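Dear colleague,

As promised, here are the two records you asked about, laid out in our usual form so they can be pasted straight into your sheet.

NAME FIELD: protein one
SEQUENCE, THEN STRUCTURE:
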Amino acid sequence: MFISSTMMDVRTSGEAYVDGCHLFDVLPPGCSGPGEFIYFAALDHFKVDTEAAREFFVSDYYPGNILHETVHLLQMAHPYRRFGGYRSYSSPAYLSEGQAELVKFLSGISAERNWQRVAENLNYYEPARQNP
C-alpha cells in the first residue's frame, strides 16, 4: 500500500485504486512491472490542515479504505491465481462495491459514517442521488 502525493496528478477519478497490472495475460497500456499495489491520495490532496481532520484520516478514512481496496485486490487476484490469467467478471459495479463495503460494516470501521451517507442519499428526492 502506498500513500502518494503525486497519484492525483495522473488519476482522473477516485482517491484510491488497485494496481493489478501483472494480473493480465497481456499487459494493458501503461502497465510495466509488478502490480498488486494499492495507491491512496496523500493528505495534501485533501488539504488537511487541522489536527481533527488528520485524526479522522488516521482513525477512519485510511483504515476503512484500506479494507475496501484490499477486497478489490482479492476480487482481481483470486481468478488470476486460480485460472492463471485475468478473468473479467460482468457483474454490476454495485455488487463488487457492495462486497468491498460489507467488509467495512462487518469490521465496524467507518460503519457509522457509511450508514449516515446511506441515510442522506435516501433522503434526496432526485432518483440519481438515491443510489447509496
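NAME FIELD: protein two
SEQUENCE, THEN STRUCTURE:
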Amino acid sequence: MEQGVSGRVLMENAGRAVAEAVVERAAEVEGGARVVVVAGKGNNGGDGLVAARLLYNRGLDVVVYLLVAGQELTGDAAENYAAARAYGVPIVEEPTHQQLREACANADVIVDAILGTGIRGEVHGPAREAIEAINSAGAEVIAVDLPSGVNSDTGALCGVAVAANVTLTFGLPKVGNVVYPGAKLCGELRVVDIGIPSDAVAKADIRTHLITPELAELCLPARWADMHKGDAGRVLVVAGSRGYTGAATLAAMGALRAGAGLVYLAIPESLNPILEVKCTEAITLPLPETETASLSPQAAAAILEHAAACEAVALGPGLSRHPQTAQLVRDLVASIETPLVLDADGLNCLADTDVTPLTQRRAPTVITPHPGELARLMGRDVPTLQSDRLGAARAAAKAFSCVVVFKGAGTIVAEPDGQAWVNATGNHGMASAGVGDVLTGLIAGLLAGGANPEQAAIAGVYYHGRAADLAAEGRDPRCVIASDLLDNLGRAMAAE
C-alpha cells in the first residue's frame, strides 16, 4: 500500500486498460477473435491475468499461457491467478515451445505480459522462446508496460524483444518506451492513468524527461514589440570549405530562422562569391584559406575578434578535416569565450587530434554529434553507443562538461549533472544531408537570443523535428530535404 492505493487496485486498473485495448482490436476480426495472453511470473504477468479474466467474463475466446507454474506466483499476481482460475479462465502452465508457437500462430490478438521493468541482461529460457513465438506470429500484439525484452532504463534490447503493435504503459512513459532502439518496438504508445498518486510521482527523482510542446515553448527566448536586430542577438557561423558551401548556408539560415538579428558567416575567401549569392541575409566574412579552400590558422585572429562581438558562435559545418583547419579548430575552441555550438567537422577535427580544448572550456558549450562523431570523440564504437543512447549522451556530457545533443531517432539532450531530455518530434526524412547543419544554426540562434545552453538545445531539437514533420505532411518523408526544414521552422515555432 502506497499513498493509500494498493498494488492490487493498480494491477486491476492496468489489466482493465489492457482488456479494453484487446476488445478494440478484437472488434476488427470477423467471426470473433482468438486472444492469447502470454504471462510471466511478475507483476507484468499479473496485469495479463487480470486482462484475461475480464476478457473471459465478456465472452471472448481467451487462453493464458503462463510461463511458470501457478504456485511460483506471489503477491498480487498470485491473487489474480487464483481469481482467473475461479472464473474458469483457461490457463496453460509451463507450456512447451511448440505449444507457444502453435497458440501464437493461431491467435488474432496476443497480449505480451511476459517481462516488466526489472529485466537486466540477456533474455533466456522460456521467456526467450515466448518472445520468439510472438514475433513469428502474424497477430496484433499488445505489450503491457513495454515490449518484453526492452530494458526500461536504457531502451536497449536484451538479446531479443517483442515487436508490438500497441504498448500500454502505466503512469508515465518509461525510458525504454521513448529511447531507441526500444522505442521502435513499441508501436503505438499509449500512456494510461491507473491511479498512481500524483504525490508519488512528484517525489520521485526523475532525471529523464520528454520534451513537450509546452516545455519547448518555455525555452524560447523572450521577444518584445520594440526590439531591434541588436536585441535579437548576433551569431558568428564558422563553416564551409570547397564543395561544402551548402553546409555553411544551412547553418547560417538556421540561425536566422531562429530569430538572430545578425548572422556573420566566416568562410574561406575563395568561396565568398558563392556564399554572397546563397546567403542573402547573412554577412559574409572572407578569411585566409588553405590550398584546398578550407579555413587556415591565419583566420583565427579575425574569427576571435568577431566572436567577442557576438552572443553565440557556431563552429564546424562543412569545415573539412584538413590538418591546418584542425589546428584552427583547436585554437578557436580553446580561445572563444562566447557560448559555442560545436558540430560536424568541428568535432571531427578534435577527435582526430586532441579533445583537450573541449574539456577545458569554461564558456557555455553545446555539442551536437551524430553517432559516428560521438564514437570518434569518445574512442568507442557506434553499436555500443547506440545500444544505450541515453547513457552515452550522459557520459559525454559529463566527460566534456557541456550540453550534449546526441542526434538520431529520439534525439537526446543531456547535461553534465545527468539530467536528460528525449525528443519525440521528427521522422526518417531527416536522414538527409544538411539537416544537422540547420540544427547547429538553430541552436546558436536561440543562444544568441538569450536562451541558456539547455534551453537552446531543448527548443532547437524539438522545433527542428517538428519542422521536419510539417515538411512531410501530405508526402512521403523520404522527399524531405534540409531546406524544407528552414521553410517550415516558422510554422513549427508558432504556438500549437
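A couple of things worth noting about protein two: The two ends are 40 Å apart (CA to CA). The mean pLDDT is 95.

Best,
R.
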